[in-house]
Structure to design on (525 residues):
């Protein structure tokens, strides 16, 4: 293996793994400073990891004294390893098989082993974020068990390294096995969608366990992992054994995975690129139907389905699922008035309408850019830009409006609301999604990005930090309003609650509607 070629290949992959981020950084630096672009990209990964450490590591690490509740460490580590394994599998698939730039590199004099190692290094950087909280949690665990600070830090770092490498090796092995059994060729979209949904289920299950399990209560009994790490000798033995196994496994995986790597990359790329082209009927009577079929054909990527459709709809469920039973119990013991029932219906609709409609990366946020290289072809058709974009809006509303409405229906039925109030909630949701979709589609058109090699390039137009802050801020706002109303519904006058929900909601909708009517949509022809 040529180390010089490998170093340069890692640099190239680092630039290609997120072309949008690379382009943004290049705009901010001078040509003579181009060498610093690699450091800046690396800095973005470490900032994301640091953010995760601060958010989750501090929560898991400093809330609990692990010497008094050691099984909590087992619970947190197992959860993060499972979540990291599932999430990293998607990263491995994207970096090894889905990115078109990888296939282009096969025409250069680069052997498959160098390509494999380069992709593995990039996988490690991309996957660092998910597992990073284990570092702080492990250090805190050893310090709680009376290791001296220096030893606690050393053992914490080593534990993090072996667990991190475990998830990387496991994911690469699984991806390679699936590639060789044709699973990824035939079912890659279904597999990725199912995997992402399962990740959400795991997150829900974890929250339920945390809130109801006795593992977090004061108990000196040790779990399987905490038992091995509770004293310096057994901890060192555990780390050494796992490390040796990983070294041996890495050599086996390198030899196994680097064989025929180019062939498998080409097969998967050919599968993904063999999408039947939708011919647009230029007959105006059939235009709406044909444009719908075309837009539907764009939903052939698991990342789009999971990140832009499933996640916005699932996230409020994840945030409120644990308390729904308590809310239902509190209102089932009281004869609620019609105004109170209406208030509950409105706050459910408010939560979903605002969150799904304004989610920083929903379907309507990328529906125009999804055209890719077909965009110029679409613009050559005898239809106005306004007509073309309105069809994008209609398609987005049908998908996102239906998904959010079904969830509102499920929420409402679970809480025992009357059909009339459910109908009102769904109607208001569809109106809201329509208004927000017009705003989002216009924004995507104004910042259109069609020269992408993978869907993640479109989604990375905004920084991860910006995306996270927007998503968490939106979640905090909508879920907090929902929670406050559900807690106060039997204590506060229903008219006050209705006003507190409906007036801000109306002002938000009016503001966006006026912006749409007087801005972009007024001028587009």
């Amino acid at each position: 293996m040529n180390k010089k070629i490998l170093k340069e290949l890692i640099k190239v992959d680092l630039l290609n793994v997120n072309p949008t981020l690379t382009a943004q950084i290049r705009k901010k630096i001078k040509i003579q400073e181009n060498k610093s672009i690699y450091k800046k990209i690396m800095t973005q990964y470490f900032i994301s990891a640091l953010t995760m450490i601060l958010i989750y590591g501090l929560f898991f690490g400093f809330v609990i004294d692990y010497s008094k509740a050691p099984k909590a460490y087992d619970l947190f580590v197992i959860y993060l390893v499972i979540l990291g394994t599932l999430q990293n599998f998607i990263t491995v698939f994207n970096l090894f098989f889905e990115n078109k730039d990888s296939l282009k590199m096969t025409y250069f004099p680069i052997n498959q082993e160098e390509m494999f190692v380069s992709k593995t290094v990039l996988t490690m950087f991309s996957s660092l974020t998910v597992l990073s909280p284990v570092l702080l949690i492990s250090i805190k665990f050893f310090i709680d068990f009376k290791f001296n600070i220096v030893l606690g830090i050393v053992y914490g770092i080593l534990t993090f390294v072996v667990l991190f490498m475990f998830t990387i090796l496991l994911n690469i092995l699984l991806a390679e096995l699936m590639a060789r059994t044709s699973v990824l060729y035939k079912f890659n979209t279904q597999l990725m969608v199912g995997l992402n949904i399962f990740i959400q289920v795991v997150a829900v299950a974890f929250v339920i366990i945390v809130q109801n399990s006795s593992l977090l209560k004061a108990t000196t009994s040790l779990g399987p992992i905490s038992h091995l790490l509770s004293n310096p000798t057994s901890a060192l033995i555990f780390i050494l054994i796992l490390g040796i196994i990983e070294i041996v496994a890495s050599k086996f995986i390198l030899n196994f995975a680097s064989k025929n790597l180019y062939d498998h990359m080409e097969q998967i790329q050919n599968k993904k690129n063999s999408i039947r082209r939708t011919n647009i009927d230029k007959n105006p009577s059939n235009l709406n139907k044909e444009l719908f079929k075309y837009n539907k054909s764009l939903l052939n990527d698991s990342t789009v389905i999971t990140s832009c459709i499933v996640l916005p709809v699932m996230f409020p469920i994840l945030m409120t699922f644990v308390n729904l039973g308590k809310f239902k119990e509190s209102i089932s013991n009281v004869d609620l008035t019609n105004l109170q029932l209406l208030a509950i219906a409105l706050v459910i609709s408010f939560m979903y309408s605002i969150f799904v409609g304004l989610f920083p990366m929903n379907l309507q946020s990328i529906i125009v850019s999804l055209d890719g290289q077909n965009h110029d072809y679409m613009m050559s058709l005898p239809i106005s830009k306004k007509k073309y974009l309105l069809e994008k809006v209609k398609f987005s509303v049908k998908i996102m409006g239906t998904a959010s409405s079904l969830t509102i229906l499920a929420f409402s039925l679970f809480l025992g609301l009357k059909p009339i109030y459910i109908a009102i909630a769904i109607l208001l949701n569809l109106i809201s999604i329509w208004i927000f979709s017009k705003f989002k589609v216009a924004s995507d058109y104004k910042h259109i990005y069609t020269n992408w090699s993978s869907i993640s390039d479109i989604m990375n137009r905004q920084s991860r930090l910006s995306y996270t802050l927007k998503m968490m801020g939106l979640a905090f706002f909508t879920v907090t309003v929902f929670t406050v109303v559900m807690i106060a519904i039997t204590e506060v006058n229903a008219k006050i609650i209705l006003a507190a929900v409906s007036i801000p909601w109306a002002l938000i909708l009016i503001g966006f509607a006026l912006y749409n009517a007087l801005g972009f949509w007024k001028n587009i022809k």
